[in-house]
Design a protein that fits this description.
By secondary structure, this protein is α/β, with parallel strands linked by helices. Helix 11 crosses helix 13, helix 21 packs parallel to helix 23 and helix 27 crosses helix 33. The chain is elongated and about 105 Å long. Bound molecules: thiamine diphosphate and magnesium ion (MG). Thiamine diphosphate binds next to helix 2.
Length: about 800
């Protein structure tokens, strides 16, 4: 067995190798791989160097298999190099870094093959993901599902400038409310962002803030060389100088080198005996080594810091580093996209005893025995379990979700009713659903669900109003069994929580079926986090309500126009906007299945754009055909006749207007058809996929759902589309088979008013639909119009 100090030496050697391999990966992509014109790798080199020691300390020493990490985006070459040394990444992928199907520019759960825990890229989001992943682990544990699995630590490697992202602060506050545990954030305090050097004293702000939220803070500022020098005569003066040196100056001196440090120290400290001696006895090279021996580059200091934690409270490590350490542009303020020239790389290669042509060899140039290095890697705690990506069985979804019907309802009300029915039952589905809402639980109709299933907290807390017997519609009891996670008003948090809950099957080996509710316009407030959750292939359901101008008296600021287009364009999210509650129940049932479907390109998350508008509900049998039409995205509510001249295709809450218009149009155009579009997204996706299939495999006759639906229409039939949202959502229907389209919808921020007033104002009322149909089709004018009210 190697001794502790031998093992530390092996570890430090591997950290140097990690820096080399990550730099070589980047260099290879820029200078060696053929056809890399225009593929210049920016942003990675200096940022990666900054973290090579810290990440080596974590992966080769500190981490256990159950720990999970979000790596700062530009440190992806470091991550890939570490995985390469573990034998989990191929040389081929490294050689193809940033290339098609190569190792990804930013660590990606879905695109990389070397065990990325959490994707990163849009700074701030991966950081918050670790916090919510920890809360989800607590949730799984509290529900008795952890079995004998040990608790993992959720760790983020955070850039200091990344801390500017507001979503991190939103997450911190939420974490505090929920008693966050098992979370470590390691701030790479290199005092540089992309453009600039960060403000002086930023660390103090970080420190107070984290302590304020109940975190432990560990500042790792000085490496061992520094600490030894401080203990020498004159060391105190040196330390004072280092502490007082402005960030930009320190960075500039690191770039300029030992001689520049010497000159500055002499100029500023003057001739003071002991300290002068301390400086003089070191060569320029030694002086630079001393001055750049910040904590984050000193293996022993980092290990000591990590190992000093013996509790499960959250910890923020602030590790001082130098951006681009060890490379020719270290510390330079413009180094973000810094790359080594071929000559610089040659020089560095030679200095590390790496023979040309042997650059990818794992232990090339290291003085340590390959067998000892190999044994050390094999023995790393992190490497002891190969099964880090877990899975969980599919939760059965009842054939049909039921609800207590009424002749008139809104889809938002229906959503509450469907969930209430599930909550009443004793199914596996009911126990695996977990809901969350950013302070709009009651106003999005989750109240009944919460009354039955309770709120989640690690400790019991009774609803005081209930214990005091004060009448209230809602029972707000908190317990470890609760299934609703109440969030503060931060939509970013909502979607990152969805991202964490929706990956529970892969991270915790226990499947959860998360449902988020929020007001539809605030999808945009959390959009980057929603996109992030989808990018990671987290699985969840979003009920967004109310929506559109249909929320009329709520006014302009709350109206959503673009969300149907977001729903269509967002990859990994199947979007639906049902008009009727029976449709919604079908979609939700299908959705719980879709959320659990596995395999390449299979399954995904579900977005339900709902409404508070109460409308007449159809009394009908839910036949298998109708059910299929609803989930495929459209069905004929009134089938077009053979000589159809006009079709109205509608989505969502404007159903009554479309139905009224078709009635009036029908008086002069008998064969008119009414197409209920439950999902423009599914229709469009199906259409695109069918065209691709036909193109790729000539002779294949596959038609998509919308092509089949529109096939019987005569060529000169006109289609009026109508939605309470942007008209482009349905406008494309005309391209499917070349029909003329008049697309109605909302393009401008509205104002308060009644639904009738606003529909008229924006031209999505029955008369506007009739006018549009008339303008598209020949024949006698429609005689009747809807009477003004
Ligand atoms: C949301 C978002 N905005 C902008 C960027 C572009 N960007 C990438 S890295 C970076 C600077 C990061 O600085 P820091 O976090 O200190 O990391 P360092 O470069 O020092 O390693 C910026 C602005 C991004 N990736 N994500
Ligand atoms: Mg930085």
């Amino acid at each position: 067995m190697a001794t502790e100090s031998e093992r530390l030496e092996l570890l430090s050697a591997l950290a140097r190798k990690v820096l080399w391999l990550s730099s070589w990966t980047i260099h290879h992509a820029n200078h060696i791989r053929p056809n890399t014109d225009g593929l210049k790798v920016g942003g990675h080199q200096a940022s990666s160097a900054s973290l090579a020691t810290i990440m080596s300390a974590l992966y080769f020493w500190v981490l256990r298999p159950q720990d999970r990490v979000a790596v700062k985006p530009h440190a992806s070459p470091v991550f890939h190099a570490i995985q390469y040394l573990f034998g989990r990444q191929t040389r081929d992928k490294l050689e193809n870094f940033r290339g098609f199907k190569g190792a990804q520019s930013y660590p990606s759960r879905t695109k990389d093959t070397d065990d990325v825990d959490f994707s990163t890229g849009s700074v701030g989001l991966g950081v918050a993901q670790t916090l919510f992943a920890s809360l989800v682990q607590d949730y799984v544990k509290a529900h008795g599902w952890m079995k004998d699995r040990p608790e993992g630590r959720m760790i983020a490697l955070v850039g200091d400038a990344e801390m500017d992202e507001g979503n991190i602060f939103e997450a911190l506050l939420e974490g505090w409310k929920h008693g966050l545990r098992n979370t470590w954030w390691v701030v790479d305090y290199n005092r540089q962002s992309l453009d600039a050097v960060v403000r002086e004293g930023l660390w103090e702000k970080f420190e107070t803030m984290f302590r304020n939220f109940g975190w432990d803070v560990v500042i790792v500022k000085y490496g061992r060389l520094m600490r030894a020098a401080f203990a020498e005569p004159g060391g105190e003066a040196l330390k004072r100088w280092i502490d007082a040196c402005p960030n930009a100056m320190y960075a500039a001196l690191c770039f300029q080198g030992g001689a520049a440090f010497r000159k500055h120290l002499q100029d500023e400290i003057g001739d003071q005996g002991a300290v002068s001696q301390l400086i003089d006895k070191r060569s320029d090279e030694e002086l630079l080594a001393l001055m750049s021996n910040l904590g984050g580059h000193d293996m022993a200091s980092m290990i000591e810091a990590f190992e000093s934690i013996g509790h499960d409270r959250p910890v923020c490590f602030i590790a001082y580093t130098i951006k681009g350490i060890g490379l020719p542009f270290q510390g330079h303020k413009d180094n973000h996209a810094g790359l080594m020239t071929v000559t610089q790389m040659e020089k560095w290669r030679a200095a590390q005893n790496i023979r040309p042509g042997h650059e990818w060899e794992k232990f090339e140039g290291l003085a340590q025995e390959p067998a000892a290095l190999e044994a050390f890697l094999a023995d790393a705690p992190f490497n002891r379990d190969n099964q880090r990506r877990l899975s969980a069985p599919v939760i059965e979804v009842p054939e049909r979700l039921s609800f207590k019907p009424s002749p008139q309802m809104s889809t938002q009300q229906g959503f509450g009713l469907v969930l209430n029915e599930i909550a009443r039952g004793d199914t596996e589905l009911a126990s695996r659903i977990v809901t969350a809402s950013p302070d709009v639980t009651v106003s999005t109709n989750l109240g009944a669900w919460v009354n039955r299933r309770g709120l989640f907290a690690r400790a019991e807390k009774a609803d005081l109003f209930r214990s005091e017997k004060i009448p209230s519609t809602f029972n707000w009891d908190f317990s470890p069994r609760g299934q609703h996670i109440e969030l503060g008003i931060a939509e970013m948090n909502l979607f990152i929580l969805m991202s964490a809950l929706g990956l529970s099957h892969a991270i915790n080996g226990e499947r959860l079926l998360p449902i988020a509710t929020l007001y539809d316009p605030f999808i945009e407030r959390g959009l980057d986090a929603l996109n992030y959750a989808c990018y990671q292939d987290a699985r969840f359901m979003v009920a967004a309500t109310p929506s559109g101008i249909t929320l009329a008296p709520e006014g302009g600021a709350h109206q959503s126009i673009a969300t149907p287009l977001i729903g269509m364009a967002q990859d990994g999210l199947a979007s639906y906007e049902p008009a009727f509650v029976d449709e919604l129940a079908v979609i939700m049932g299908w959705g719980f299945g879709h959320m659990q479907r596995d395999g390449a390109g299979e399954g995904g998350s579900v977005y339900l754009r709902l409404s508070t508008r109460t409308i007449d509900q159809p009394q009908r049998m839910m036949t298998p055909d109708l059910q299929k039409g609803i989930t495929d995205g459209a069905y004929w509510l009134r089938r077009p006749g053979e000589n159809c001249e006009a079709v109205i295709a509608y989505t969502g809450a404007v159903a009554p207007e479309a139905i009224e218009a078709i009635g009036l149009i029908g008086e002069s155009r008998r064969d008119a058809g009414l197409l209920a579009v439950t999902s423009a997204d599914r229709l469009h996706a199906g259409w695109t996929a069918a065209r691709k299939l036909r193109r790729d495999r000539r002779g294949v006759q596959h038609l998509s759902h919308i092509e089949k639906l529109l096939a019987p229409l005569p060529r000169d039939c006109g289609i009026v589309t109508v939605i309470d949202g942007h008209p482009a959502t349905l406008g494309w229907l005309g391209s499917v088979r070349g029909h003329k389209v008049e697309a109605l919808g909302v393009e401008h921020f509205g104002q308060t008013g009644t639904i009738d007033e606003l529909y008229r104002h924006h031209g999505i009322d029955a008369n506007a639909i009739i006018d549009a149909a008339e303008s598209l089709t020949a024949g006698a004018p429609v005689r009747h119009r809807k009477m003004a009210v």
